[in-house]
Every structure is written in C-alpha cells, then in structure tokens.
Amino acid sequence: MDSNTIQILLAMIIYMTIIVVIGLVFSKRANTNSEEYFLGGRSLGPWITAMSAEASDMSGWLLMGLPGVAYWCGLADATWTAIGLAIGTYINWLVVSKRLRRYSVIAGNAITLPDFFSNRFREKKKIIMTISALFILIFFTVYAASCFVTCGKLFSTLFGLPYFAMMLLGAVFVLLYTILGGFLAESASDFMQGVVMIIALGIIVTVSTMHAGGLQAVVENAKSIPGFFEFFGLASPMVDENGVQILENGVPLFGEASSYGFLKVVSMLAWGLGYFGMPQVLLRFMAIRKEEELKFSRRIAMVWVIISLAIAVFIGIVGRFLYPSVHLTATSAENIFITLSTSFLPPLFAGFVMAGILAATISSSDSYLLIAASACAKNLYQGIYKKDASDKSVMKVTRITLLAIAVIAIVIALDEQSVIFKVVSFAWAGFGATFGPLMLFSLFWKRINQQGAVAGMISGGVMVFVWKLGISKLGGAFAIYELLPAFVISSICIVAVSLMTAPPSEELNRDFENAKNGNYGR
Hints:
CATH topology: Sodium/glucose cotransporter
Number of domains: 1
CATH class: Mainly Alpha
Low-confidence stretches: none
Radius of gyration: 23 Å
Strand order of the largest sheet: 1-4
Number of helices: 20
Strand content: under 5%
Number of strands: 4
Helix content: over 70%
C-alpha cells in the first residue's frame, strides 16, 4: 500500500470515526424505548428532516449508479430518471408530508409504516400489518444488498483488495452502527452525510470540468458520440460476448443511436412514483417535531435534490470525455466517480471525497436495516405474535433481525458484477408499487377500506415481480420500468375492491376528517 493509498484510508477512517461518535452520543437516548429507537420521539428539526430524508433516499447509487448510467449510454436514461425523481420528491413533500404527519398521530401514534396502515383501518386481525411488514423485509433486504455492493466496489477499487472481503467489512460496519444508535443517530449522521455528498459532487464536477478544458469541450465530445448527448436518443456501446466495450486503436466503439420514444420517457419519469411508498422518506415526515416546519424542509430538500442529481448526471458525461476507455463494462462504469476523485485530487482530500460515497451508502443502508428490523420486531413480533412483549424484548428481537437481514443481504451482494442501478431500481419499484398507491388513497380517499388496501398491496408487490421477470421479456411496449404498470394495477385494485365491498365505518370516516382538517394534538 503506497503513501497515497494510506492517506486516502486515513481520511476515510477519520470520517468513519466521526460517524461512530455520533452513534455513541445518541445511543443512550435511542435505547430508552422503542419509540425513541425507531422514530426519535418525533423530535426532528426541519434541516435534519430534509437532509436525512434525501441522503437516506439517494444512497450510493447517486454517486456511483447514476453517473455510471450517464457514462455508459449518455444523457437520456440518467436525465429522465433524475427529472422523474425531482418531480416525485417535490410532490411528495408538498402533498403527502403534512397529511401523513397528522394522520400518523391520529392513527394510534404510529411509529412505523405498517403501524400506520394497520391503525389507519383500525384492523383487529392485523392483516395489513403482516403483509406490509413482509414486503418491507423483502425489498429492504434487496436495498441493503445494493449498499453492500457499493461498499465492496468502493474499497476494492481504492485499495486493490478482494471484493468479498471489502463488501463484508462495509456490511459489518453498517450493522454495528445501526444497532448502536437507532433512528436519531441515523438521522443526525444522515444530515452530515447529505452535506458531505453534495460537497463531494460539487468538487469533483468542478475539478473534472476544468481538467477537460471547460464545459464546451465536454459538450462537444459528448455530441460526437451517436445518441450520447440527446434527450430522445441513446448511445449504444459496441460490446463483445462478455459485455466488454470494443476498442479500436484505443478508442471505444459505439453503434448507431437507439431511439428513445415517448413510452421510454414516461417509463423513466415513473421513478418519481416511487417516493409515495418509500418508507425511509415517509418516516421523516412522521418524525418531524411540527408539521409547520415541513414547508421549510421541502425547500431545503428540493435544493439539495436538484443540485445533486444534475451534478451526478454530468459527472458521467465529463468522465466519458476524460477516461473514455477505462471503464469498458456497465458494471465498471459505476466507478467513474472514484476514478475522477483519485486522479485529480490530493490523496488526503480524495479520501474525504471518497467518504462521500461511504456517506451515501451508510445513510441508506442504516435506514433500510432499521426499518426492516422494525417491521419484524415491532410489527410482526409485538404487533401479532406476542402483543404483551416488553420494550426490552422488542429491542432484542430488533437486533437479532438486523443480523439476519444483513446476512441475507450479504449473500445477495456476493455477485461482484451486480449493477447498483439495476438492483436499486427493482427495490424502488417494489416499494413504490406496494405502498405508493395505498399511501395516496389512505390519505386522500375517504372510501378506501381494508379489503381495498390489502388488494392494492398484494397486486402492486406481485406485479413488480411478474412484470420484471416475465412480461418485460416480451420487449417492445412491454419493456418499460416495472414500477409504472404495477403502480397502475395497484391503484385500480384499490378502487375496484373498495367499491365492491362495505364502506368504511363512521369511526374511520371521523379519523379521516380529523386528519384532513388538522384536528389533532401537534
């Protein structure tokens, strides 16, 4: 290990130490009871609410996955995805946040998403709670795996060490940190990580553009590649049978640009639908101390999101200009941020920028693990299996669950060739289709009932698998992002089944009106 690598490692160790200290500071309060551990006692301020929501949401794919897509095939896929995410973020904060903050208090002071859905319909047999908790366990395990893949790629690329050992090291660190601090520590560190992420993005895009000879030079190079710098076209790297891009005299070859029609644009914009069902974001709405502060939080979140997404896409474009033949597979392309950082920055400073990737990964994976564990311990164990379980036993089951989920996620992450963007897109679709329509109808449609809620969750979650693994293989109009058709099917099932079955009780209608009019203790 040379001196440059040692300096990078030193910077990352300093960063990780700060994260651990944050966990220690909040660990005593977090372990007071399950409400403090899972929701921080609804005490988040507007800055931490906004920054922790976005940092936990974006994860390592913002610094690796999205630039990798732009590097590999150009603007279109990455840009339309980013636009969809920005629109979804704004609508979620504008429409969902305030009503959910109110309703979660009215619905039995719910502290998890399954709690909210179950209490919203005042169910006695806990059917909704069971189904929602199981879907959270499934999709968050996949999400956590994507974060572990990011850790493995980051450390193995930086230090030249085996992928598996580095992935395992990252997973162990995240697991220990999550067990230690709970929601408050996670949210506080996510605030810092959100700051680190946007600074890292800003530094790299600025330095890289300067080395490329300026913005005009980058744009001209991008335009020289067929379909690369188009919103309605897609670059087509020419690859061999192993998926490696072919070089001619050291220059990577591209085929004719692929068409990028209206359906493909809508498919990518559909990423924004995922926000309505994303537990790690929705929990921040529930945890803010006052609903009046959500407006300020929304402004903070939108500034962060727009700047971060735009820079992440452009990093892939400038990376293709500076290092056209370094990353010759879609998997390798996700390392372009690392390549730019280590090439143009002093080693110690590069280490802190690399901490930006680690920041994104930790901020997401601790959220995923914690929410998945809460679904098992709080909702399945205490909510259904042993209703008289003490807080102490709930916390014990939480830690056991965290370990089990981490082990399964590690197994999923064993494949070094996993493309982070694709892993994330599947889990994102799962949450968006399972919980997105249900959340919107629960908050804004008085007629929805328990039967409609169950039908919506099951149809949305199952359709994600059916479309991804079966229908999309037909190609053509069917080769769209699975979130879109699954979201539509879930919405139709909610409306149809609710209208075909008995209307909600007066008690449920009263809860709905109280949430609508803000008649609750704040």
